[in-house]
Amino acid sequence: MHINPYKNNLNIALPIILSLAGQSVVQMVDSIMVGRLGAAPLAAVSFAGAIIMNIMVFGIGLSISLTPVAGQFWARGEYRIVAGYFQNSIIVNLISSVFLVMILIAIIPLLGLMGQPPEVVALSYNYYILVSISVIPMMIFLTSKQFMEGIGNTKIAMYITIIANLVNIILNYILIYGKLGAPQMGATGAGIATLISRLIMPVIFAAILLKNIRYRRFLNMFDKKLFSLKKQFELIKIGVPISGQMAVEFFSLSFITVMMGWIGTNALAANQIALTMINFTFMISNGIAGASTILVSHAIGMRDTKTARRNGFAGMHISLVFMGFFALIFMFFGEEISSVFTSDMDVIKIAGKIFIVVALFELFDGLQVTALGALRGLTDVKRPMLIAVFSYLFVSLPVAYVFGFVFNLGEAGLMSGFAFGLFTASVLFIIRFNHKTRSI
């Protein structure tokens, strides 16, 4: 029976979208709430968040490696092998999360050497430390999330994320502004709220896995005999290129954020507003990409290349529709969106200019991440990493610097560099997926 690839993609993608977008909404609420305290606190959250995300993407990439592997063996009914990969993924991700936090803590003395305004750096320290620590529980949660998505269940992670988000928003309100007898803590309060909400996420997931007999059977298969350095290195072999691809993309955008700081605090605050919305729309396309990874991996597991190809391109088409809609919103309502985050007219004007550029690259952003998700379903990760290095380091950053400072186009010029990188990546990823699905 022929299954509509568009309907299939949407059914799997929507819970992932809600889960990822839910996390993005919390970041958006963080920015809105902190932004009400002034441009400097908003810039501090942007600065600290950019650095943390650049390190955390290495862990996220490792966790993603479980999804296509579990998906392929699950499609063949080889459940003990799936359990083995899950067990070894927990070990890999737990060790890596501790290592990443150690790196983040070691970076603290360097925060003041990155050319940012002194008041921004001073306000960022506590938020930075708290959110850095939250990487460990977040990675444990992501391990379970990627396992569940690999076997086709995308809803549980969505429900947990929604619960954690509600906790985060409530705690934000209490701790940022000092409500219900709590002291007003500003950006530090946002960091505490993030840490608490991330701590409860793996706890809820563990309870669900233990209670539900369908999923507990995988835990029951856990055995010291399944402990395998070979499987761990296989996951790392898949995960490291994914991490590398994600890292260079985030590094590109984050270095552009650093360059925004060279212009001034208002530019950095305006950039944070734009980044918050970019992240929100990106999470939608990332959800579609996650569905593509799952569906393509299942098809490859069943050795059905034609279906894998059809599902991959359907995801790209769906992403184009979503991102096209948001491009129009950003193009015509950029300043109105900015005014929700801050009342500073200088920041609003700068953000409005940045949003025009963002509108121009939304389609490319959606295409590149969805094509990349389809490639991950094929476990094709090495060449995409090289494409990402070329696109985001050798195209995006040089163009950003030239447009921003040589041509003196300022904030919009800096963001234009990222647009060129996204365009390059989207074209090369699509060519790669087309070639791979014709040659398998």
The total domain count is 1
* Helix and strand sequence: HHHHHHHHHHHHHHH
Mean pLDDT: 90
Structural class: mainly alpha
Distance between the termini: 23 Å
Q: Determine the number of helices (DSSP H or I, runs of at least 4 residues).
A: 15
Let me know the number of strands. 0
- Overall body shape: globular
Rg from C-alpha positions? 21 Å
Poorly predicted runs of 5 or more residues: none
Main sheet: strands, sense, barrel: none
Per DSSP, what share of the residues sits in E-state strands of 2 or more residues? under 5%
Helical proportion, percent range: over 70%
Strand and helix layout:
Layout: H1 5-35, H2 39-64, H3 66-75, H4 79-107, H5 118-133, H6 135-150, H7 155-177, H8 187-211, H9 213-220, H10 229-263, H11 265-301, H12 305-341, H13 345-377, H14 382-406, H15 410-439
Helix pairs in contact: 1-2, 1-7, 1-11, 1-12, 2-4, 2-5, 2-6, 2-10, 2-11, 3-4, 3-6, 3-11, 4-6, 4-10, 5-8, 6-8, 7-8, 8-9, 10-11, 10-14, 10-15, 11-12, 11-13, 12-13, 12-15, 13-15, 14-15
